[in-house]
Design goal:
Layout lengths: L13 H14 L7 H14 L5 E3 L2 H11 L5 E4 L5 H9 L3 E4 L11 H7 L4 E7 L8 H11 L2 E5 L7 E2 L2 E2 L6 E5 L12 E5 L2 H10 L21 H11 L2 H18 L5 E2 L7 E2 L6 E4 L2 H13 L25 H9 E3 L8 H16 L3
Parallel strand pairs: 2-3, 2-4, 4-5, 5-8
Antiparallel strand pairs: 1-9, 6-7, 6-11, 8-9, 10-12, 12-13
Helix pairs in contact: 1-8, 2-8, 3-4, 3-7, 9-12, 10-12
The structure holds pyridoxal-5'-phosphate (PLP).
InterPro entries: DegT/StrS_aminotransferase (IPR000653)
Protein name: DegT/DnrJ/EryC1/StrS family aminotransferase
GO biological process, one term: polysaccharide biosynthetic process
């Protein structure tokens, strides 16, 4: 039986990639801000309508560099419902993650809960636009400006998402994203950092390249956050297909939306003013038990949804501050993401829908 995983990387025609390989060999320039990387940054800048794109080696180092660039050292208020890298990068940077619980409908950090945990040591908010759905950006910006906090958005799920008609990467002091192979747009491994502030962009360019300010001069501490020509080549190939990828995702999501009975389950509520990219299809069941039964019924037919995101990050054992996050804990226990990737067939979605509807119908 054909296995249907939760996601699969998009693969461009191999001839297109091979053409870049020939070029790379010819030039003998494999990494260190090469011409393909510069081209990718330029093409992305144009496609997204952002000021500048700083490509890095992955979405995790993007978060680490964002925290460093803003000089954050104290408490960072963050969401418990995200991929682990959101929290672990705060910790890795020697800062203290403090959780504010999520809104049960958007699955994003609840601004009112942010207000409850702000104290004199709070320096920043690091919020994930979970599953590609925008946070309450206006409210978060207002809180940040009233309390003198920096805002970083982990926009790893957000390629193609727009807020108020512009790329969501344009919001916050810094936005970061991931171009990992499992993401909607990818360069195998990779990521990017975006900022509206010229000085910050300059800091970021030093930080991602060992602090180099020219070959014999350094401007502060840095890390190796560069990406290679081989990764850039994959990004350039994939970017040609991005509109097709976004269209397909939308069509597939509409099949799920119209076919699922949503009896004893619901999906995420999209934030207003948001053009959603349909990156993921989360399904939140009424109980852990029902979620678990549906998941095993699907697995019997070789369909493998994933428990994104479980566990709730507030349960990580290396955290110093334990903040109760009952909404995140509860949702994490009963949510799955359904299969969604470019080559997934309509018939496979229909089969998935049928199994879910049938299982829920027969459950009491
Ligand atoms: C994938 C992901 C990351 C990490 O990106 P990598 O490129 O894999 O390092 C960070 N945050 C979120 C929300 C993610 O989904």
């Amino acid at each position: 039986m054909k296995t249907i995983p939760v996601t699969k990387p998009f693969s461009p025609p191999i001839e297109e990639y091979k053409k870049y390989l020939d070029e790379i060999w010819e030039r003998n320039w494999y990494t260190n801000n090469g011409p393909l990387l510069i081209q990718l940054q330029e093409n992305l800048r144009e496609y997204l309508g952002v000021r500048e794109v700083a490509c890095v080696s992955n979405g995790t180092v993007a978060l680490q560099i964002a925290l460093k660039a803003l000089g954050i050292k104290g408490k960072v208020i963050t969401t418990p419902f995200s991929y682990v890298a959101t929290t672990s990068s705060i910790f890795w940077e020697g800062c203290t993650p403090v959780f504010a619980d999520i809104d049960p409908h958007s699955l994003n950090i609840d601004p009112l809960k942010i207000l409850e945990v702000i104290d004199k040591d709070t320096e920043a908010i690091l919020a994930t636009h979970c599953f590609g759905n925008a946070c309450e950006i206006d409210f978060i910006e207002k809180i940040a400006s009233e309390h003198g906090l920096k805002v970083i958005y982990d926009a790893a799920h957000c390629f193609g998402t727009k807020y108020k008609g512009e790329s969501i990467f344009n919001f916050g002091d810094i936005s970061t994203t991931s171009f990992h192979a499992t993401k909607l747009f990818h360069s195998i491994e990779g990521g990017a950092i975006f900022s509206q502030d010229k000085n910050l962009r300059k800091r970021i360019s030093f930080l991602r390249n060992f602090g180099h300010d020219g070959p014999e001069k350094f401007s502060g501490v840095g890390i190796n956050g560069k990406n290679s020509e081989f990764h850039a080549a994959m990004g350039l190939c994939n970017l040609r297909y991005i509109d097709e990828i976004l269209e397909r995702r939308k069509h597939q999501s509409e099949l799920y939306l119209s076919g699922l009975s949503f009896e004893k389950s619901r999906t995420v509520q999209i934030q207003k003013n948001t053009t959603f990219n349909f990156a993921y299809f989360p399904l939140i069941f009424d109980s852990f038990e029902l979620m678990n039964i549906v998941k095993s019924e699907l697995e019997k037919d070789s369909i493998f949804p994933r428990r994104y995101f479980f566990p709730s990050l507030s349960s990580l054992d290396y955290l110093e501050i334990k903040q109760p996050t009952p909404i995140s804990d509860e949702i994490a226990s009963k949510v799955i993401c359904l299969p969604l990737y470019h080559d997934l067939l309509d018939s496979e979605i229909e089969k998935t829908i049928e199994i879910i509807n049938h299982t829920v119908f027969n459950y009491d």
